[in-house]
Amino acid sequence: MKKLSFLTVLTFVTLTVPLAFAGEVVHVKTLGLVCDFCSKAIEKVFLDTGKVESTNVDLDNALVTINMKDGQILDDEFIKTKITEAGYEVQNIHHQAEVKHD
User: What is the pLDDT of residues 44-100, one digit of tens each?
Assistant: First the structure.
């Protein structure tokens, strides 16, 4: 029984660990984001963390897209705080695993 439990845990870890280290894309829907100058400031805040590969601010849709480096994460509270400090309201935050094609 111990061997079966061990194998079950080992299989689970083997299958889920690579997902934890894959790059992640975070989509943040905001309210009031209309200024190009301010969007550049938001991009810089996230790039300066050292955890972010790239960012994109879509002013037409008030959407901030954050592409994380492999194995890096930013929690929702940090993201919300930084965008709120910039003067904008966060409507929602959606995390999406990045799909890599080798």
Answer: 999 999 999 999 999 999 999 999 999 999 999 999 999 999 889 999 999 998 665
Instruction: Count CB-CB contacts under 10 A for residue 87.
Output: 12
Give CA–CA dist 33/90, Å, rounded.
10
List the alpha helices (DSSP H) in the chain: 2-20, 36-47, 76-85
DSSP state of 88: -
Residue type, 36: D
Q: Could you tell me the pTM of the whole model?
A: 0.73
Domains of the chain: 23-97 (3.30.70.100)
